[in-house]
Design brief:
Layout: E1 5-7, H1 8-15, H2 19-28, E2 34-36, E3 39-43, H3 44-51, E4 69-75, H4 80-95, E5 105-111, E6 116-123, H5 125-139
Antiparallel strand pairs: 1-3, 2-3, 4-6, 5-6
Helix pairs in contact: 1-2, 4-5
Length: 141
């Protein structure tokens, strides 16, 4: 909402009405609106005149940035011993978190018949990159 203008969706939310009902009020001239492109915008003063009272000030949206990485690593032709080392290394690194640090989740699965390991890492950017480097140091020649 910029410069006291509301979209039809915002007005519908504020008044507890369906969007089509608000559009109908605009088309019938009951609610004054300005058409910008293909959308209507309703001025705060016009909305207040329509409902007969001041529009409550919207609380500012508080957003906290959160970045999480989801990584899936598939390793072919890996021995059970090496898969065990990778798994132990990752579980140890993920488990050594200090209180208050973001959670780091790691899951591993090993298919002995195919010699294939799958690693799933969920966590922050830096932590995930560090774990992927650990995998690289163990499995790359």
């Amino acid at each position: 909402m910029e410069a006291g203008l509301y979209s039809v969706d915002q007005v519908a939310d504020l008044l507890g009405l369906h969007v089509r009902t608000v559009r109908g009020y605009v088309r019938e001239g009951k609610l004054t609106a300005v058409r910008i492109g293909k959308q209507y915008r309703i001025a705060q003063q016009d909305l207040e005149a329509f409902i007969g009272r001041p529009v409550p000030a919207a609380e500012p949206v508080r957003r906290h940035r959160h970045v999480e990485v989801s990584s899936i690593v598939e390793i072919d032709a890996i021995s059970p011993e090496t898969a065990g080392r990778v798994s132990s290394l990752l579980m140890g690194a993920a488990g050594s978190r200090r209180p208050g640090e973001p959670r780091l989740r790691v899951e591993t699965a090993y298919d002995e018949e195919r010699g294939r390991m799958k690693v799933i890492v969920l966590g922050g950017l830096g932590d995930s990159a560090r774990l992927l480097e650990y995998i690289a140091t163990v499995v790359e020649p």
